[in-house]
Amino acid sequence: MELRDLKGLGPKRLAMLEAAGIRSLGDLLWQLPRGYIDTTLDTPVAALQAGRTACVAVTFCAQPSIRYMKGLSMVTARVEDDSGTLQITWFNQPWNRNNWHQGDQAVFYGRAERFRGQMVMQNPKLVKERGIIPQYSPVDTIAGAHLAGFIEQVLPHAHTACPESLSPRLRAMWGLCGLPEALQAVHRPQDAAGLAAGKRRIAFENLLLYQMAVRSLQGEAQAGIPMAADSAVTDRFWRQTGFAPTDAQHRVLGQILSDMASGRAMRRLVQGDVGSGKTAVAFGAVCTAAAAGWQSALMAPTEILARQHLVSAQEVLAPLGIRCGLLLGGMKAAERREALKYIEAGAWDLVIGTHALLGEGVHYARLGLVITDEQHRFGVRQRQRLSSKAAEDQPAHVLVMSATPIPRTLALILYGDLDVSVVDELPPGRTPVATRIVPEEKRQDLYRFIRQKVQAGEQAYLVCPLVEESERVEAKDAQATYRELAAGPLKGLRLGLTWGTQPAAEKEEVIARFSAGEIDVLVATTVIEVGVNVPRATVMVIENADRFGLSQLHQLRGRVGRGTLESWCFLLGEPNERLRTLCATNDGFVIAQKDLELRGPGDFLGTRQHGRLLPDAFGVGDMRLIEETRAAVHTLTHDPALAAEEQVVRRRAMQKYERVLEEIGFH
Predict the structure, then answer these.
(1) How far apart are CA 18 and CA 161, in angstroms?
(2) Any bridge partners for residue 223, and if so which?
(3) What one-character DSSP code corresponds to residue 350?
(4) Chain centroid to CA 495
(5) Rounded Cα gap, residues 96 and 75, in angstroms
(6) For 85, which of 80, 159, 173, 638 could close a Cys bridge (C-beta 3.0–4.6 Å)?
(7) Three-state SS at 265
(8) Dihedral angle of Cα 5, 10, 13, 17, to the nearest 10 degrees
C-alpha cells in the first residue's frame, strides 16, 4: 500500500502532502495530533472553571439571537442543565441562528471563560462522538479532519510503515512500549493510560535522539583564551557598584571567572528574573577580561537597551579605568567611522551595541569576551559570529544573559551547548510588585489611583495589545486610549505614546522623556517589555491582560518595582488561570513553568529557530522524561555492553538532527 492508494487522496492532495514532506505511509503516521478533545465525561455547568475546556450536555432555553457588528455576525444562545445556565456565542457562524430551537438538546465542547460576570463558551464544537478524539493541524488546504481520515486508513499498516526502531533491551530498560503500538495509541486512543504510554514512548525516543545528537556535535570543549581571575579586581568591582552583591551574584560570577580561567572557551547561560542583577555579574566578567588585556562586546536586542547599558557601564566601569563605547546601526556615518576606529585600535575595553557589532567592517583589537543580552531574541549563529571575531584564531568566551525565565526542562534542551547558571535571588530592598485583577467597573477608581501616584512624583505605564483599532479584534488600542485619557480621566497629566513601528527617533525621544521624568503616564504597546529602566515608575496597567501570555505579562510587570518605592501591576481583563497565577507569585521561574504547561513549548518559545529544532511536542515539558533521557544517553555512551545499541542510536540521531542543529549554528 502507498499514499496514492488511500481513498479520497487525489493527485492535488497528494501533491500537497509531498510538498509538506509527507511522501510515505510512515511520514503520514508521524503527523502526530496537536492535541485531544476528551468527550468521555460531561461537566455540570455550575462546575465550569474559567480557562478550562469541558464537555457540557445542555438544553436550549430559547432560539438563538443574531446581531451584526462591522460586517461580522454574532449568534448568542442561552443554554442550561440541572445545575445552571451558560451563554454560548458563535462568531461568523450565522447558520447557528436557525440550527437550534427552544428545547433542543446538544453536547458541546469548548473553553469556558467568565465575561462580565457570567460563564460563556465561544465557538464550541458540537460533540458527535464520545472518546478521546485526536485533533490535527491542517496541511496546506487539507483540513485536519481529512488528515485524520487518511491516517485512519494507514493505522492497520503501522507495523510495516513504521517498524520498531529501538532494541528489545533498550525498551525493557526504560519500560517502553513498541513504536507501532505507540502510534496506534496516540492516533486512536482507547483510554488515558494507553495514550500516556504511547506519548511517553514517542517522546522518549525523540528526546533520546535529540540529546544524543547535541552530545555528538558538541564534542570536546574548544580551547579558549585563559584569563586568570584576580580577587583584588573582583573586590574592587563590587565596591564600585555601591551595593552588597547577593550570594547568588557571588556564586554565578565565580562560575563565570572559573570558566574564563580554565583555558577552555566559556559557553554559559545566566538566567535571572527581572532585577536580579545579571548585568552587574556580566560587568564583573568585563573587569576580569580588561585586567587581562582583552576587549569585551555586549550585544543588546534594541538601541534603547544598548544605550541604557552604556549609561550603567560608564557609572560602574569607567571609574575603574575601563573605557566604554557604543556602536549602533542608526549612527551617522561620521559617528560610525569614529567608533570603528576606536574598536580596531583597542581604545575601548567594552563595546556595547546591537546587531551592528556583527558587521563585516567591525574589527576588534583583542576581543576576548562576548555577552549577549536577552538571548531569546538572537539566533545561536549570531552570537557565534560575534565570538568568531576574537583574535588569535581562538573563540571568545561567550556569556548569554536572559531575563526571560525558561523552565529547566527547556533550558536543558535548547541550550545543550551552554552551561547554565541561575541568579535566583533579588537584591535587598527590592519590594515585590503587588498584582491585582481589576474589573471593568473599577476602572475610574484605577485612574484616580494613577493621579494620586503622579501627584506624589511617581510615574505609570499603560500597555495596550494593539497599536490602532482593529475590526477583527475587540481589544484596546494604544492610540485611541491615549486620546481618550488625554481628553478625559487623565486630563492635565503629561502623557506620552509609543509603539513598536513608531519611527526610531520618535520612540527613543518619548522613552528618554519618560526616563527623565518629563512624562507622567506612558501609553504603549509591548515595545516597553524590554529595555526601559525607570525607578520612579511604580504603576503598570495592562489592558486586555487576558490576551497576553503569562511570561509576557511577567516581563511587563518587571518594568515597575525597579526602585525602593511600593509598586503595583493592574490587570484589566476577564479573570483566567494565567492572571490568577500572576497575582499569586512574583517568581519568574514558577511563572515560566506554568506558562509552559498552559501553552506548550512551541507557543511558549515563539521563535522560528527553536520551532524547527524542538523534538515533537510530546514530553518536551516533562522534566522527569528529560532527565531520564539524559541519563539514558550517559548510560549508552559509557556502558560497553550497550556499544551496539549506542552506535545505532547515534547514527539515527545524526540523521534526524544534524542538519537542523548545524543550521542554527549549534557547533
Answers:
(1) 16
(2) 264
(3) E
(4) 31
(5) 7
(6) 80
(7) coil
(8) 20
Cell 569585551 locates to 296
The sign of the torsion formed by the CA atoms of 35, 602, 276, 567 equals negative
Q: Which pLDDT belongs to residue 173?
A: 94
Going from the N-terminus, what domains does the chain have, and what CATH number goes with each?
A: 1-39+136-160 (1.10.150), 41-126 (2.40.50.140), 231-423 (3.40.50.300), 434-585 (3.40.50.300)
Question: 31 near 172, Cβ under 8 Å?
Answer: no
Residue 134: beta bridge partners?
A: 36
Cα torsion 170, 172, 178, 181: sign: negative
Q: According to the model, what pLDDT value does residue 378 have?
A: 45
Q: How far is CA 590 from the centre of its chain?
A: 14
Over residues 173-226, the pLDDT tens digits come to 999 999 999 999 999 999 999 999 999 999 999 889 888 887 776 655 577 889
- At residue 39, the 3 state secondary structure works out as coil
Instruction: Report if pTM > 0.85.
Output: no
User: Tens digits of per-residue pLDDT, 81-92?
Assistant: 999 999 999 999
How many Å apart are CA 150 and CA 147, to the nearest integer?
Answer: 5
Contact status, residue 525 vs residue 463, Cβ threshold 8 Å:
yes
CA pair distance 523, 477, nearest whole angstrom:
10
CB 3 within 8 A of CB 154: no
The number of residues making up the chain comes to: 667
The separation between CA 243 and the C-alpha centre of its own chain, rounded to angstroms, equals 32
**pLDDT tens readout for residues 469-517:** 443 344 568 888 999 999 999 999 999 999 878 887 788 888 889 988 9
Mean pLDDT to the nearest integer, 357-386: 73
Q: Do strands 125-126 and 105-115 pair parallel, antiparallel, or not at all (unpaired)?
A: antiparallel
Closest CA to 274 of 411, 430, 399, 419: 430
Of 138, 156, 144, residue with least CA distance to 25:
156
Amino acid of residue 348: W
Task: Round to whole Å and give the CA distance between 592 and 568.
Answer: 20
Task: Give ∠ CA 158-161-167 in degrees, rounded to 5.
Answer: 80
User: What is residue 142's DSSP assignment?
Assistant: B
State mean pLDDT over 22-49: 92
What lies within 8 Å, CB to CB, of 590 at 6+ separation is: none
Beta bridge partners of residue 114, listed in sequence order = 119
Kindly provide the b/e burial profile for residues 97-116, where b requires at least 16 CB atoms within 10 angstroms of the residue's own CB. bebbeeeeebbbbbbbbbee
The pLDDT of residue 655: 87
